[in-house]
Design a protein that fits this description.
alpha+beta, 9-stranded mixed β-sheet, binds flavin-adenine dinucleotide
Amino acid sequence: MNEFDVIVIGGGITGAGTARDCALRGLKVLLVERFDMSTGATGRNHGLLHSGARYAVTDRESAAECIAENKILRKIAPHCIDPTGGLFLTLPDDDLNYQGTFVEACKGAGIDAEIIDPREALAMEPSANREMIGAVKVPDASVDPFRLCASNLLDAKLHGATILLYTEVTGFIMEGSRVLGVKTLNHKTGEEGSYYAKITVNAAGIWGMSVMEKAGITVGMFPSKGALLIFAHRVNRMVLNRCRKPANADILVPGGTVSIIGTTSTRVPLEECNNPQVTPDEVNLLIGEGVKLSPTLAETRILRAFAGVRPLVSSDNDPSGRSISRGAVCLDHASRDGMEGLVTITGGKLTTYRLMAEMATDMVCRKLGMHVRCQTAWTPLPGAEGHSFKETADTIWRTPANKPEEPDIYGDALVCECENISVGELEAAIKHLGAGSLVDLRRRTRMGMGTCQGELCGCRAARILAREGLGDKALSDLRSFMAERWKGIYPIAWGDALREAEYTQWVYKHVLGI
Ligand SMILES: Cc1cc2nc3c(=O)[nH]c(=O)nc-3n(C[C@H](O)[C@H](O)[C@H](O)COP(=O)(O)OP(=O)(O)OC[C@H]3O[C@@H](n4cnc5c(N)ncnc54)[C@H](O)[C@@H]3O)c2cc1C
């Protein structure tokens, strides 16, 4: 029961993709995640399926990786991708000469970048700044990171992988200079465990460096915090970028029912990575720069702020981390550090996760002496068949496991009006996707992510949890769910947002006693 071919540490997109790839190649896989899936950078990013254009001038290798993967993901995960297209705007403050360099670099990296008339750009994207002096169209898109991660984990499971959530790797089982497996602690039951495998893959994102320290190995990483703001409705149809070298707050991504402006890049200490905070200065900067891309943001309600930490591989001479390559890094610790049975996969982007998983799995197979071809570049993820992003959203189910078994009138009833989520979908997420709390449900279904921020759906979903046998903690769960939502509202709580937060608090306190 405790023996596997490969153990993957981390249930973010890199770990999920690696577990899937390994399972598709016939390996017996265990994935161990200390919290829930997508709790690290995977659930705290911009949701931009990069065309690579952003990196074309400064990081050609990463740009080429992005466009190749952008094309693949559109085929294997159409249910996770909204093919919005993107525009790179040159504003009066920017140098129009950069546009030529940018388009040349895009072409060099294989990205289809087309200069268009600013009037045409405005017709395509009415929310864009009318003052723009130049525009370039690129194949950017918007991607749902939660759905993508869930689909990968589901497929890994369907191919025999074991997934342990809320289980932390606390140490390695070692014999001399070989890793034989991992020691774990289950945070829900307090149970300790030992699992053995020929190869262990470290896909623990920015925490990968502390995980590796447990094996006496140093991996130099650069924890780069990025802050973002979510606006209460979908302001833009297309992804809007500034046509200049990557800088702060220069991308506005439409995602589902909302729009997200970001981001910043600041080195933070490792201790801050578990709970990265958004500062008032960052909020001001994001609004100030965002308004330049799309002036309508000045009048749009802000829903919440959040931050994530990028798992970049270290560079000592770049204080912000902006110039560190976003390319993927795959390390064989046998040749690098003399430690057999251990591999690290890190760096990269959400957009390039599949490639990263392929790199890691190729290395695992090489080390096991196996010759099995990677299939993930053409094998659709569960939920992909015949379903576009819009259809998936409209038919109220996200992955096959979320599909209610026997839809009925009760099952079809809406719980979350903002994100169009039914009772049946929540029930299925509890039964088949291991959701044990409201926050787990949010990650699997988007419940509470829309305009009301859980104000309306939180209580209804708590009742469904109770009905499914999780009643003893439904109330405390509702409290932590609202507290989690509050964390994101706090940094933007002034004016109308503050008034609304007060109102919500009264409702919860005086109507519900919470
Ligand atoms: C602000 C921001 C914006 C971004 N925007 C974009 C974008 O628009 N497009 C794009 O393509 N990319 C974007 N990225 C990059 C992208 O989010 C990351 O590259 C990607 O999500 C990394 O995934 P990961 O699985 O490697 O790491 P993570 O998602 O961080 O996953 C690591 C997991 O390991 C787990 N873990 C840690 N320690 C242990 C342990 N001891 N035992 C078990 N589990 C453990 C963690 O809980 C975590 O879930 C952005 C990143 C940030 C921070």
